[in-house]
Amino acid sequence: MHFIRAKHEIGAPASEEFGEWPARAHICSMIRPEDLLRPTPKGLYCPPGDFYIDPVRSGVDRAVVSHGHSDHARPGHGAVLATPETLEAMSVRYGEAFAGSRQLAPYGAITCIGDVDVRLVPAGHVMGSAQVEVKWKGLTMVCTGDYKRRADPTCRPFEVIPCNIFISEATFALPVFRHPDSPGEVAKLLASIRAFPDRAHLLGAYAFGKAQRVIREIRDAGYSETIYIHGAMKALCDMYERLGVDLGPLEPATLEKKQRSESQKFAGKIIICPPSASSTTWAQLFPDPVIAFASGWMNIRQRAKAGGIELPLVLSDHADWDELTNTVREVNPEELWVTHGRDDALARWAELEGRRARPLHLVGHEDETGE
Amino acid sequence: MQAFAALLERLVLTPSRNAKLQLICDYLRHTSDPSRGWALAAITGDLDIPSVKPAAIRELVVSRVDPILFNLSYKYVGDLAETISLLWPPRPGANRAPDLAEVIETLMESTKAQGVKLVEGWLDALDSAGRWALLKFVTGGLRVGVSARLARQAAADFGKVDVAEIEELWHGMAPPYLGLFAWLEGSAPKPVSSALALFRSPMLAHPLLSKAERLDAHDLNPSLISPADFAAEWKWDGVRVQLVSDKSVRRLYTRNGDDISKAFPDLLEAADFDAALDGELLVRTPEGGVASFNELQQRLNRKTVSPKQMIDRPAMLRAYDILQEGSEDLRPCSFHDRRRRLERFVVSLDTNRIDLSPLVPFSGAMELEKLRRSPPTRDIEGVMLKRWDAPYLAGRPAGLWYKWKRDAFLIDAVLMYAQRGHGKRSRFYSDFTFGVWRSTPEGDELAPVGKAYFGFTDRELVMLDKYVRDHTIERFGPVRSVTANKHQGLVLEVAFEGLQRSPRHKSGLAMRFPRIHRIRWDKPARDADRMEALESLLAV
């Protein structure tokens, strides 16, 4: 298409930038970014490497997977390239046979697929999460997958990579999403336990990533008592422990006789469960539970209220508005592509900043379940 | 401001009454004067500050934020105060965050025009939770799901006093209630109110027989009712109120101490005396009879009332008791003496808006039982028994007053829909919509006639919840529809106090006070009641 040609037309500042990228003068007349990565119904596709990045449907021949959340990492592909941690998460969740073959790509290592150089770089979203950098004939495109910029004790921080095209997620791309600092949110939970020592605190958290981060943050706040976990959390918590994240004393949140009399031991305790579990009969067994939920969506009170959440904790594994916009400024790409989430608002922001932006309207990465 | 904002947030999201009480109580304990007094006033709705229009605040925000981004955000969030509190871009270098007292005291001394300017400065200085709390009370009304009564109860819990004591003082005090808190903390004696037309905590009755029809300490064995000990009078189907006229000040209070004077100026105008009366608030039909409870409800909960409403549905008081006459407090007197004073007093009044609730003569328990079973008119809910020698005591003292209600109406209906409950029950399907059979050209169908969410035991609730989960056919958000046809369905015996025509309900009927009386696991759905059975009750 026209975007690099347009850069030429802009004039002096742009050509100065081109100085650092000698190959681009060549690209502009020959290559269009769609030749390297293009949105398709199955997800972002790379024709010269014949692979998809985070395909939204199962069963492609070759997939590069940014991280282990189920809307990005689906089972049943022919070959999967991902970080060792992501591959391990997939085998924990889907079983060893989740793909025909798998290829380990540690952070920073370059893998050649056809003519395309693929490199995975930390994205700071969950353990093993990566941005996917693809280079071909001097054109560099970076797909962020999901990412965040703030500190997370359970994963490597996001790294800024200069590139021509930056393909960003936009889950929380509205200026109302400004996530507070995590310690303050964890303090709310601990304060509630002190205020309601007779009530169990049922904290909903996504089973992979959020749950372990929440536990780690609670430990960092000085809480050393046993934390109880729902059965769905166990395998992934074990994986985090294996990979070196100390989660402290954990015990299963199960009642052997399924009786209320037995449930008193959970009064004043923290129980971590998948968000959907808090509205099941399982949750009814706990003493007068306070229903909490750790998610970036909890920033919106109306949303918490509608979901019957009594104690919302704004803890997100996605970039908030300021992180998204600051990251785009830092990366300073020639063009911003916006994938899943509120692409309209981020595109509007780019317009106000005088940046080129293109909403991809990629479907399939559910913007809510992953958080 | 931060602590207050955190309290409001927690209150908005907390469904349980007890947890709300605990949260407010904790806040009062950990917050100093005068902030806690202002906070209490903000919650009870007794804060009188110039309000700022939402439009003015919207204007402020679009002067700082791109209108398109603002609109995208507002559309997403759906609540103006919340949207603004979240996306407000503070100007750097704002002052320190103000505390609640400072905000309120400054606003009280300013005009509406100054208000907007002040709010802008504070939005810069506060964090998002603080901005939200600020916007909530400057745009009027906190709406955090706490009634004035509940807030006063929390203050009573905090001071370990009876809420009746606070209610009696309430209308004579002004925020930030320094004297009240000093007393509640034990550092000063109970404040003496010099205000006029104060509320007096009402005397309440015990049910004659407790629910399971077994006698406990508060019950009276019906066979022991004798006209020598007890006076009987009708229990009218209206709203229990207190009408107080004290020199030039006149007030109408509910039994919870809420001031509803503004909705009933017609009755207040008639209170041309110097006394405090206890009675039933009723409205009349244009023909002069007593209108239904439904009609009374049309006039309740209103800030103002139109002249047409006052003509169509004039308000009246049916007097039960007299608590004060002139400067004389009659509450220590026996019911016998108060009744004599009341009769003399009502007769002397020159108005048709206040009449006397007549005593019901009876010879013994048997006769009274007949009267309460089938009262002469529909606006009577049963009988009241009052000991002749009892003084007027606040609260629900044992052994002095009893209510003996007429039996509830019963129908067998079929469970159609269930909805998740609130609070402790939010994880149970505990709100049940039920229907009865109705003939249609296509054959019989179930028509929903009411909804009930109590009457069952905790054990029964667990069983009902399981039944709903096992028999769901469809889900709509928090609501599930369950199998209900002639072959399969759960029959619920529903008790209710009355039935009225209502254009607002799909069935055209409104049930008063419906509750699940029994679960008829044994009864086939096809044998449930028909619409005609309900229609016949309307005719009574």
Question: Your description of this structure?
Answer:
The complex is a heterodimer of chains A (371) and B (540). Chain A is α/β, with parallel strands linked by helices. Helix content of chain A is 27%, strand content 23%. Chain A has twelve helices and 19 strands. Chain A has helices at 3-10, 12-18, 24-30, 33-36, 84-94, 182-195, 210-220, 234-242, 281-284, 301-306, 321-331, 343-352, and strands at 38-40, 43-46, 51-53, 62-64, 77-82, 99-104, 110-113, 116-122, 130-136, 139-143, 165-170, 201-204, 227-229, 250-252, 270-273, 290-294, 311-313, 335-341, 357-359. In chain A, the strands form three sheets. A seven-stranded mixed beta sheet of chain A has the order 7-8-9-10-11-18-19, covered by helices on one side. In chain A, strands 1-2-3-4-5-6 form a six-stranded mixed beta sheet. A six-stranded parallel beta sheet of chain A has the order 14-13-15-12-16-17, with helices on one face. Chain A is globular and about 70 Å long. Mean pLDDT of chain A is 87; it is low at 1-29 and 367-371. Chain B is of the alpha+beta class and 540 residues long. Among the domains of chain B are: 206-405, 2-Layer Sandwich (D-amino Acid Aminotransferase, Chain A, domain 1), CATH 3.30.470.30; 409-537, OB fold (Dihydrolipoamide Acetyltransferase, E2P). Helix content of chain B is 35%, strand content 23%. Chain B is built from 19 helices and 19 strands. In chain B, the strands form four sheets. In chain B, strands 11, 12, 13, 14, 15, 16 and 19 form a seven-stranded antiparallel beta sheet that branches. In chain B, β11 and β12 form a beta hairpin. In chain B, α1 packs antiparallel against α2, α3 crosses α7 and α6 packs antiparallel against α9 (128-138). Chain B is globular. Chains A and B meet through α9, α10 and α12 of A and α1, α2, α5 and α6 of B.
